[in-house]
Design goal:
- The structure holds three protein chains of three kinds.
- Chain A is an all-alpha fold.
- Chain A has helices spanning 3-32, 37-40, 48-57, 64-76, 90-125, 130-144, 147-161, 173-203, 206-213, 218-255, 261-271, 274-302.
- Chain A has twelve helices and no strands.
- In chain C, helix 4 packs across helix 5, helix 5 crosses helix 7 (154-166) and helix 7 runs parallel beside helix 8.
- Chain C starts with a strand and ends with a helix.
- The chains are: A mainly alpha, B mainly alpha, C alpha/beta.
- Chains in contact: A-B, A-C.
- Chains A and C meet through helix 9 and helix 10 of A and helix 2 and helix 4 of C.
């Protein structure tokens, strides 16, 4: 087996205990809540007999480990039970919302990566000049920006004043622009910082001096020899930022009344619709773990050195 | 000054005072802290009592930042909001630092299966990205000031375990630690005398940056309605019904947003500056 | 003359003050000649090399003149200089482990050099690269072309860099301590390889080392540098049979001998280049120093045919 294949397999195996841990924590949620789980999972108007029925049906009278096994085997089939109030199954509500959030995050990631990487390179090429300081300050502003406040400002500008884009809702591409720009700008700030730091580090490396010593033109040295190395750590940062976006979507979706997963989770928390809360949080955390694993694997493809480890 | 500082501390201090990020960030943070501490004396009105006849007034000479729907003075609420943010962020970060330092340091020092288990748990906690862990905790414990503190502390905890564990592992390998162990120095003494001081710089830097993140997260929870509840003034919560006032009264959410933004910026600047001064190897 | 360096001075501004890394260096190099430059670290020998190939950091201040192929390099436009680098002047650095880009194959690196300076096709580039990898005795050139740097040993990487530096038949090759970072056994192999290649190519060489023994093995002439200045320069034979500067003599005693015997290190350490000693910079460490050495800087003077020394005790002692 090649080093690369071995690395990929090892990395995937490493993610399994983490995912199990996540599922245990999410499963335990219902038991960490004050009160009787069966009561919590029963509709508010349920009688004592109905609560007992739910207890038996959901296996809440069984030992904890058995309950976990039932929870997991259902979760792996994509079944999270029924919403306590709406009459829908959790899956019916979960997947469309998930798809919305995923679209939003991917689009935001696109904005973030393009703007961030360009900003980072632009700054790193002239370190400690006005333009570098401008980029550095701008990134710091972006990182410090409350994402929901930024969203409100963009709505004020583009929806209220300019009347160019809708202030909320979903359905068309236009509805996606402001929310993804909001998330993407904050993401760009992180990507920009990471790219700048990494590019500066790489530009001081000996192999860059070697490339210059052999007369390779700046274009080649910067955009191929240096950038390829500089992007390696940025890929890791991008994985983390994607997770940030999935989570940050909770706030952005609220600002834009966007029917995503975050909005679904928050509403479910208010309604004490715990099956939805559990499923939603499990799905976001799982996506995050899967993406970071994928990023690590991607990392091995762009960085030949890592395959040895 | 009566305390005589040793030369290296003096040098670091001088470097810190020359650092622009530290200076600007420091001024912002100091203003924020003073605002929080002195809120009762500087706020012109009671932040919780409003006059319904003055509901949703735009900024004017009587109310420089205008009023909210209940006719409460927004300036006073912004000033008192600093106090809420100050309490939530410092208490939660403080708890997380203490717990993280103990767990992370011991885990690294003891090693073996305990370290393995701690690392796994931290990995699992870090699998809940950003605000999600706090949201999860808030869903369990419910809203309210104390509960937000718990949620934000838990959200910070794994970060500090990881940092402390990392730098303690490094310190553990150093010769003077091995020497101290060889001459029979007690574990507690080694921990206090070598592992902790060696980890201080990254912990201080990170605590500052995490304070910024915590202020944002706490405000986020409150914005969602899962955090600090009215009538306690809180910046995020003050913006929670902003959508209603997008056209009619943007001042309702603009001012608390500015306060939140500048405060977070201040902590980030300070953290970046401290990082430059305390971890010179990270400097470019 | 292929290269003429005249009164070259290189200085940097630092927080501690101005560092005069190279101070009034004058030397020349003919075609197919090898000049070995010897000095301890901090003697300015690497700065001298970087100034000839135009790779000094932008903060460096360069005065004096470097003429190469009838061009004045100190005032050459960067774009024109870039065309010289890798084509007419090449350099092999000390540290082969970090000198190659970790994410690209050897083949890509060598191909880029060829395509940059010669144009032409990828096929021509790779076939020339393959040919030169053979000349530097890399086992399996084809496989090396598709290897990443981390898959090769330090010695192999240095061979790759030597091949890259000779591939386009340059006029001047600078080797900056090319063996210092390698294992002792590999050092000998690389030195032998360099000696062999020298006879096969038309290039002139500047070979920088801290080891006088290595300098003698590869150089036609040897220049000894101390604290930014050349203190003695002569033919290889002359340096060994008739070393005149007390520093050169000290270096000779410090060379490990095959026959064994005591190695005598020179007492003291290389002086600060920010605030160098007055007079002769070597006087604090010199066994022969007197008051004049502490006050007056000795000039580099020709004391015999092609033998230059900067020492009061030599010119003043009337040995010539």
């Amino acid at each position: 087996m090649s080093d690369l294949a071995r690395y990929v397999i090892r990395r995937i195996i490493l993610a399994i205990p983490t995912l199990l841990g996540v599922s245990v924590i999410v499963f335990l949620m219902i038991h960490m809540l004050p009160g009787d789980p069966a009561q919590l999972l029963a509709p508010p108007e349920a009688t004592i007999q109905e609560v007992e029925m739910i207890r038996r049906r959901l296996g809440l009278d069984k030992p904890l480990w058995e309950q976990y096994l039932i929870f997991m085997s259902n979760a792996l089939k994509g079944e999270f039970g029924k919403s306590l109030f709406t009459g829908h199954t959790v899956s019916e509500l979960l997947w469309p919302a998930y798809l919305n959030t995923l679209t939003l995050s991917v689009l935001a990631m696109g904005f973030g990566l393009v703007i961030g990487v360009l900003m980072g390179i632009y700054a790193a090429l002239r370190p400690n000049t006005v333009r570098d300081q401008a980029v550095t300050s701008l990134s710091l502003l972006g990182i410090s920006m409350p994402v929901f406040w930024l969203g409100l400002i963009l709505i004020e500008i583009f929806s209220v004043w300019l009347r160019l884009l809708p202030s909320g809702g979903s359905g068309t591409f236009k509805h996606l622009i402001l929310p993804s720009l909001t998330l993407g700008l904050v993401g760009a700030a992180y990507v920009g910082r990471a790219t700048r730091a990494s590019m500066l580090e790489v530009l001081s490396q000996e192999y860059i001096r070697t490339a210059r010593a052999y007369g390779l033109p700046d274009r080649l040295v910067i955009y191929v020899y240096a950038l390829r190395n500089a992007l390696i750590p940025v890929v890791t940062v991008a994985g983390l930022i994607f997770g940030y976006m999935m989570a940050g979507a909770v706030l952005t979706e609220t600002v834009f009344s966007f029917p995503g997963l975050g909005r679904l989770i928050v509403n479910a928390i208010f309604a004490r619709d715990y099956p939805i809360v559990q499923a939603g949080i499990l799905v976001v955390a799982t996506t995050f773990v899967v993406i970071n694993t994928a990023v690590d694997i991607l990392y091995a493809f762009i960085n030949p050195r890592i395959r040895l480890r | 000054m009566l305390v005589e500082l040793d030369p290296s501390t003096k040098k670091t201090l001088r470097k810190a005072l020359r650092n622009r990020n530290i200076r600007v960030g420091g001024i912002i943070v100091a203003t924020f802290v003073l605002m929080g501490l002195l809120a009762p004396f500087i706020a012109p009105y009671d932040p919780t009592k409003g006059n319904l006849r003055d509901s949703l007034l735009p900024p004017c000479s009587k109310y420089p930042f205008g009023t909210d729907f209940a006719g409460r003075d927004i300036l006073s609420r912004v000033i008192w909001g600093a106090r809420t943010s100050l309490i939530v962020s410092t208490v939660s970060v403080f708890i997380a630092v203490i717990a993280g330092v103990l767990v992370g340091g011991l885990s690294a020092y003891v090693g073996g299966w305990i370290d393995e288990v701690v690392t796994r748990i931290v990995d699992v906690m870090l699998s809940f990205p950003d605000i999600l862990l706090a949201l999860f905790v808030a869903a369990i414990v419910g809203p309210g000031l104390e509960n937000v503190i718990v949620a934000v502390a838990l959200y910070n905890f794994p970060q500090f375990v990881r940092i402390m564990r990392g730098s303690a592992l490094q310190a553990k390998e150093m010769e003077f630690v091995e020497a101290a162990r060889a001459i029979g120095e007690s574990n507690a003494s080694i921990f206090a005398r070598y592992l902790l001081p060696n980890s201080l710089a990254p912990i201080v830097v990170h605590a500052t940056l995490r304070t910024a993140a915590s202020i944002l997260t706490a405000a986020g929870l409150s914005f969602l309605g899962l955090g600090v509840q009215p009538p306690i003034p809180e910046w995020g919560q003050m913006m929670s019904d902003a959508r209603t006032y997008l056209v009619t009264a943007p001042h309702v959410w603009i001012f608390p947003g500015i306060a939140l933004f500048i405060t977070v910026l201040g902590f980030n600047l300070l953290g970046d500056g401290l990082n430059d001064v305390l971890n010179p190897k990270m400097e470019v | 003359m292929l290269l003429e360096v005249h009164d070259l001075r290189v200085s940097y501004h630092t927080d501690e003050g101005t560092v005069k890394a190279v101070d009034s260096v004058t030397l020349s190099l003919g075609r197919r000649e090898t000049l070995a430059i010897v000095g301890e670290s901090g003697s300015g020998k690497s700065t001298l090399a970087l100034s000839i190939i135009g790779l000094l950091p932008k903060t460096a201040r360069v005065d004096g003149s470097i003429r190469f192929l009838n061009k004045e390099l100190t005032s050459l436009r960067e774009e024109e200089f870039r065309r010289l680098r890798g084509d007419r002047i090449t350099i092999v650095f000390q540290e082969p482990m970090t000198a190659l880009n970790p994410v690209f194959t050897i083949g890509k690196f060598m191909r880029d050099i060829y395509l940059t300076h010669r144009g032409g096709t990828e096929k021509d580039a790779l076939s020339l690269a393959r040919e030169w990898l053979g000349k530097v005795k890399v086992p399996g050139p084809e496989k090396v072309l598709s290897s990443y740097p981390h898959e090769l040993s330090g010695g192999m990487r240095q061979r790759v860099l030597i091949a890259s530096s000779l591939m386009l038949e340059p006029d001047l090759v600078i080797m900056d301590e090319p063996t210092s970072a390698l294992d002792v056994s590999v050092q000998a192999q690389i030195l032998r390889l360099i000696a062999e290649l020298k006879s096969q190519v038309e290039a002139s060489f500047i070979f920088i080392t801290h080891n006088l023994g290595v300098a003698a093995a590869v150089g036609d002439r040897v220049a000894v540098m101390y604290a930014g200045k050349i203190v003695e320069m002569a033919s290889k034979e002359e340096i060994f049979s008739n070393p005149m500067h007390p520093y050169t003599q000290g270096l000779l005693r410090a060379v490990p001998k095959v026959s064994g015997g005591e190695v005598e290190p020179i007492p003291g350490s290389v002086p600060s280049l920010v605030n160098p000693p007055s007079g002769c910079r070597f006087h604090p460490r010199c066994p022969l120093a007197d008051e004049r050495c502490a006050e007056e800087e000795p000039a580099l003077m020709e004391v015999g045919s092609g033998h230059w020394v900067a020492c009061h005790r030599v010119s003043g002692s009337g040995r010539w």
